[in-house]
Every structure is written in C-alpha cells, then in structure tokens.
Amino acid sequence: MFTEARIAAGLHAMMREIEAPPVPLAEIRRRVAELPRERPRAAGFYLAAAAAAAIAIVTLPVVAPGFVQSLEAQIEAILRWTPPPAPPASIESTMRPHIGTLTQAQARVAFTIVAPAGLPKDVVSETIATTPTGVYSKATGSWSVGGPCVRFTYKRRGGLSLTLLADRFDPRTGPPSKYIFLDEGERNGHEVLLRRKVFTWRNGDQVMSTTEGAGFSATDIARIRSAMHGIPIPGVWPPQDGIIVKQYRLP
Amino acid sequence: MKIGREAVEAARSGGDALDTLIAELWPEAYRLAFGILRDRGLAEDAAQEACATIAARLNSLRDADAFAAWTCKIVTSRALDAARRRPIARSLDELRTADVYVENGDALDLHDALGSLEPRQRAVILLHYYAGLSSVEIAAALGIAPATVRFHLMRARAMLRRILAVIESAHPLDEVLTDVH
After folding, report:
1. Rounded CA gap, A201 and A215, in Å?
2. CA atoms of A77 and A82, how far apart (whole Å)
3. Are A35 and B30 within 8 A, CB to CB?
4. I need a labelling partner for A63 at 20 to 30 A (CA). Which of A186, A246, B21, B100 fits?
5. What is the pLDDT of residues A53-69, one digit of tens each?
C-alpha cells in the first residue's frame, strides 16, 4: 500500500537520483543580460526629501548588480540625490493602508486634517486611506515606522485618477522637492524618466502635496490650495535632505 | 531547496555571493524541472531560464525566508512554459533507461507512475511531496486557485495510487522478498 509517507519518501529518493549537469554560470549570466528590465521595486513608494512631506521620487532598478549594470547610478546622477537604502521588510509590512471615512482618518492621525476643497466638478471621491509612513534617520542610518499620513484619492472623467497626500508637518524633513521623477521604463533603447512638478502647501500642522499630471493641471491644484486657504511652500531643486527622509506607500 | 537566509541576503549585492547562490540552487532547480519535464534538454533549458530570472529578480524578493517557495514557483513556471512549447512524447522504458538511474524500488515505481501524468499534475505532486509547499503556495506557483490545487492533488494522488497498485502487482518477486524480510 502506498501511503502518503511512502509516496513522499519514494519521491525524495527518485529526485535524489536525478543527476544535475554542472552549473552553467556563463550561460545563466548571458540569459540574465537578455532579460527585460524589471520594473522598479520603489515604484509603489514616494520617498520624500521634504520639509512638508513634499516629494522626491526615486525609482531604482532591482536587477542584481554583478550580472547586469544597473541604472541606479545614472538615475541618481540625474536626480542629484542619493536615496536612503530600502527599508527592511519589517517596516514595509507595517505600511498597510486603512480605508475609512474622514472621521476615522482623523482618529488615526496626530494632526488636524483639512480636507481638500475646490476640487474640479467632475471629481468623485474614491477612498480616504491612512497609512503609516517609513522614516529614515540619516543620523542613525536606520528606518522606523512614522505616524500615518492620509491619502485622498479621486476619480475623474476619462478614467483619470488623482491623489492628494496629507501628513503632519515635520521640519526635520527639510524643504520640499520641486519635482518628482517617475521611471517610465525603456523606450527605443533609452530609459525614460518623467518629471512632474510637486505642489505643497500648509494648513496649520497639516502639509498637503500633490503633483501635476494627467489627473490634475497646475491650475486645478492652484484652485484647490486657494479654496483650502493653504500657505504654499516653495519646492527646491536639487532636493535638500533634512535629518530624516520619509517614505509613503502608494496604492 | 535548503538555502539559508544569510546566503540570500548576501547574494542581493551580486558578485561572488550571487554566483555561489546560483551554484547551490542549480542542482535542485534542474531536478525539479526534470521531474516535471522528463527531458534532459528541456529541463536544462528551463532550469537555466529559471536561475537567470532568480538572479535578475532577487532584489524584488522582499522576504528572504520565502526564497525556497519563490524559486520553486519560478522553476515550475519555466518548466511548464517549456512543456507547453514542446510537448514530450517518449516511452517510459526510454525515460527509465536514458534519463535517470533509480535504485530504490518505490522510487522506480513512482518514476514510472509519474511518467503517465501530465506535466502540470507532476508539478503539483512534486511541489507538494518533494518541495513541501502548501496548497496556497502551489496555487501561487501555478497561478490557480488553492481549491483547484487541492482538486488536482486529489486526482493526481488517486491516479498515482492506481498506477502504483498495478505496478506493484506486476512485481510478485518484490512481494515475496517483502514477506521474507
């Protein structure tokens, strides 16, 4: 009778008998070089080098060095900013969004939320999510979990999506970045970085930021800031890190 | 695939550590690919493709403790891709003599019995009994629902038992020897 244990033991014995050929490292390296580039791990995150949570995005290729020369150094040279090391999985795993109402979001954060106002008429609210942030200390070279931020996501005609990010003002982050760069991948043999302007403003102890793009024009954003009576915080370029760097998880 | 967390973390920086990791991984990757494909050429190609993918995407693996399940998933995926591209039609006798030498009686019977299963069923059996993956992990590896995995596993197990019963009944000498011992 072939029991489960006997099947398992027999299969292990069978597999042990299979003799593998010598490891073809050169061939494997050749195949690695031919693989399409992996989309960046950091694509789901904002890395903020910013006083008021304004944003500098970096996207780093995940191809292991030693096999394929990465674009990391080139991207950093363009950005003129070297990001902190990636946060450990233990930090990232805590950065899970909690979807709820504005009241529930207010109960979770340590700042007074001033909700977006003056939005374009075709905009429909989709989610309000609170998500813990990642905080990198340049002094200690370590990551920790920061207080939650609030992400307001809206839908707009034509399938457009727009996001406004609210966080507690923290002077340790330094001035906000003027631009974000999105890694659009490779086109015609060239890596494409898409530059977008960041808009940042303050209401009390809240700092709100968003970027112009397909969903929001600079005019739309100016109307929102004005309706919220927000005080604009000018961005700088190249980014100037403060003593901490904050990371925000994107949807 | 018994490769420690430290080795995986070290390999993330590339260079010799990554070479070492791939060298340690290779035999198991090849065995799993061969177990699914039953063809040395296809298995070598699938294992090379899998190792290249693992090397290139190692930094995207968040949890080094999940390395074994992650590599099984990639190897299985590449092997099933190879099976889809080039179906294999070879006799059991040819496979037994040409590709693997098995001393253990149960292993030989299983080798024969597995030969009659489809590559996907073989993958389910090997991932469950050999790699020790759960139905959820196998589901992730094969891109199907866990319930479907359990169904495949149940059918493959039943088929395996039927085939093994036939094979065992065809070896009266083995039964006598079992009685003597």
Report:
1. 19
2. 8
3. no
4. A246
5. 223 333 323 333 333 33
